[in-house]
Amino acid sequence: MFSTILALHSLVRWLILICLFFAVFRAFNGLFSKKVFSRFDHLMQQWTTIIVYVQLFLGLWLYTTSPIVEYFLHNFKEAIHQRDSRFFGMEHIVVMTLATIMITIGSIKTKQQSTDHEKYKAMATWYTIGLIMILSSIPWTFSPFTSRPYFRPF
Q1: This prediction's pTM
Q2: CB of 55 closer than 8 Å to CB of 12
Q3: What is the 3-state secondary structure (H, E, C) of 112-125?
Q4: What was the pLDDT predicted at 24?
Q5: Residue 89 Cα distances to 43, 81, 97, 115, angstroms
Q6: How many CA atoms lie within 13 A of 71 on its CB side?
C-alpha cells in the first residue's frame, strides 16, 4: 500500500505543478491585461486548490506510514543530522503544509475580492508564494537536500 500511495503522490505532484503554473500565468496575465475574472479563472483557482488538498492528504498518509519518517521520529537525535531523514521527517512536511496554507489563503482572498483586478492580484500573489515554496521542497533529482526520481512506478 505504501508504494502505491508513494507513486500516486509522485504523480499528483506533476498535476499540481501544471495547475499552479497555469493558474499563476492566468493570474498575472489577467492582472496586467486588465481582463475580466472569468468563470474559467474561478474554476482554475478552485481545482488547483482541491488538487493541492488531495496531495496534502496523500502526503500526510505517507508521513504516517513512511519508514524514513518512523526512523526520524524514533531516533530524533541521530536522524536530525541525516539529510534524508531530516528532509522527509521535518522539512518537507512543514514547507508543503505552509504552501498549502498559502494557496488556501489565496483561494479565500480571491473569492473575497470585489473587482477583477483585486481577484487576479490576490491569486497571483498567494499562488506564486505557494508555488515557490512547493518548488523549493520537492525532492528533485538535482536537489541539494535529497533526491528522488521524477516518476515512481506503481
Answers
A1: 0.91
A2: yes
A3: HCCCHHHHHHHHHH
A4: 98
A5: 34, 11, 13, 42
A6: 14
pLDDT band at residue 154 using 50, 70 and 90 as cut-offs: confident
Listed residue (65, 98, 66, 100) closest to 85, CA to CA: 66
Task: With respect to residue 21, please indicate whether it lies within any of the assigned structural domains.
Answer: yes
By C-alpha distance, which of 33, 22, 50, 48 is closest to 121? 33
Give me the pLDDT at residue 148, please: 85
Provide the domain count of the chain.
Answer: 1
**What digits encode the pLDDT tens for the residues 54-108?**
999 999 999 999 999 999 999 999 999 999 999 999 999 999 999 999 999 999 9
Helix, strand, coil: what percent of the chain each, to 5?
A: 80, 0, 20
Classify residue 74 by burial, with Cβ atoms within 10 Å: 0-12, 13-18, 19+. exposed
150 within 8 A of 141, measured Cβ to Cβ: yes
Report which of residues 142 and 26 the model is more confident about: 26
Q: Is residue 17 part of a domain?
A: yes
The residue behind cell 474559467 is 40
Q: Locate 5 and state its grid cell.
A: 500511495
Report the interhelical angle of 39-65 vs 116-137 (nearest 10°). Answer: 30
Domain range for 128 is 2-137
